[in-house]
Amino acid sequence: MQSVVDYILSLGATIFVPIVLFIVGLAFRLSVLRAIKAAVTVGVGFLGLNLVVSLIGDYLSPSVQTMVDRFGLNLSVIDLGSGTSAGIAFSTTVGALIIPIIFGLNVLLLISKLTKTMNIDIFNYSHYALTGSVVALITSNLFYGIMAAISHAIFSLIVADLTAKKVQKVIGIEGISISQGFATSTVPFYALMDKIFNKIPALNNRKIDTNFIQKKFGMFGDPVIIGVILGVIIAILASTSFVDGSQLVIVITGIMILFPRVIRIIVEGLMPISDAAKKFFQTKFKGKEFFIGLDSAVTLGHPTTITVGILIIPITLVLAAILPGNKVLPLADLAFAPFFICMATIMHKGDVIRTLISSTFYMVLVLYIATFFSSYYTDLAGAGGFIESAGGTEVSALYIGNVFNFIITILMRMEVLGFIVLALFIIVLYYFVFKKINRKEEPEKTS
C-alpha cells in the first residue's frame, strides 16, 4: 500500500490532477480529445502555478531569513513547511490507508446525496492523513486515527458545500468548491470575523477591495504599483543591497501579475469539464447539483489574496517574535502564506481591510496550534526518517496549525468519549447544514 501511495505522490500535481480530470471528463461524456485538452490545460496551469510559488521560495525566503537574523528571533521550533508535512503524513500507516478510504467515502456520500462535492484534490488528503497520524500517535490506536482523518474529510466536504456559491461568485468559476483540508478549516473563523466586522461602523457597508483602492487612490491601487511598494518595504526590512532589493521588487511585482494569469489557464481547462458535469447531472439526475472539489490554489488569482498574502509574511514574523508562548520560527511555510489566508478573501468578498485583519488574527491561531503540535510532529518526522531523531531539536510547520486538526485531536484524546462526541457533532452538523442548503434551494424549486 505504501508503495502505491509513494508512486501517486511521485507523479506530482501537474501529472496526477490532469489524469483524474481526464477520467472525470470522460465520465461526463466529453470527447476524448476535449477531455485531453481540458486536463492538460489544467496541468499546464498548475505547472505555471508551481513556477510562481517557486519564485516566492527562491527570492523571498533569503530575505525572510535575513529579517530573522537581523531582528534576532530566538525561537526553538523550526518550521519544516508544507511539502515535508505532506511527506510525513503519507509516511505513516494512517497515511498509507487514507487515500482509498477517503476517496471511497466521498463517492458513497455523493451517491447518498450527503454531499455535492467530489474532492479530486488527492494530494491534499495529506491534511486528513496528518490529523489521523497525530491522533493515532497520541492514542496508540489505528482505528481512532482513521476515524479522526475521516472526520476531518467530512468537515471539509461540509464546508466545501456551504461555501461553493461564494467561491464561484468571488473567483468566477462555476461548478467548483474548495475542499482542501486547511482552507476549509479557516472558514468558520473568517465567517465569525465577517459578522463582527458587520457590527463595526467603519467597516460595515463598505467594500474596500482592490478596485475601490484603485478608484480612490488611482495608480496606487494598481497591482504593479502595489507590488513595487510591497517589494520596497520587505527589502528595507531585510536591509538588502540595491541589486537584491531591486530583484525582490521585480519578483514580487511579477507574482502580483502572474498569479491571476496562471489561474486563468486553470479556469480555461476546468470550464469544459464543469459544463459537461452540469449537462450530465441535468440529464441523469434531474438537475442535481454537483461540485468539483479543488485545491485552494484556484483562489490565488484574486488580487486581494495576493496583496494580503505577501503582507502577511512580515506580519507573521513579527507575531512569532512577540506572541508569548509561541515557539515556532516560521520559515519554509512563509512562501505559502497566500494559501493560509485565501478563504478570508472569499468570506469577505474581496475586501482588503477585512481580509488583512482576519488573516492577521488567524495567523496567531496558526502559530499557537503549530506550537501545540510540535512534540507530536517531531515524533512523526523522526519515525518517518525526515529528521535525525537525536539532537533534541523540535520541528513543526504552519501547515499543521489547522483548527479542525486541533479540535479533532483534543476530542480524540478522550478516546471512546471523544469519538462519541465527534460522531454526534458530525450528525448534528449535517442536519443543520443540509436544512440550511435545502432552505436556500427551495425558492428555486417552487418558481
TrEMBL record:
Residues 5-439 form the PTS EIIC type-2 domain. GO terms for molecular function: galactitol transmembrane transporter activity. PROSITE patterns: PTS_EIIC_TYPE_2. Keywords: Cell membrane, Membrane, Phosphotransferase system, Sugar transport, Transmembrane, Transmembrane helix, Transport. GO terms for cellular component: plasma membrane. InterPro entries: EIIC-GAT (IPR013853), PTS_EIIC_2 (IPR013014), PTS_sugar-sp_permease (IPR004703). Coiled coil: none annotated. It is found in: Cell membrane. GO terms for biological process: phosphoenolpyruvate-dependent sugar phosphotransferase system. It comes from the Bacteria. The chain crosses the membrane at residues 6-28, 35-57, 88-110, 144-164, 224-243, 249-271, 292-322, 328-347, 359-377, 406-433. It holds the Pfam family EIIC-GAT. It is a multi-pass membrane protein. This is Galactitol permease IIC component. The lineage of its organism: Bacteria, Bacillati, Bacillota, Bacilli, Bacillales. The gene is gatC_1.
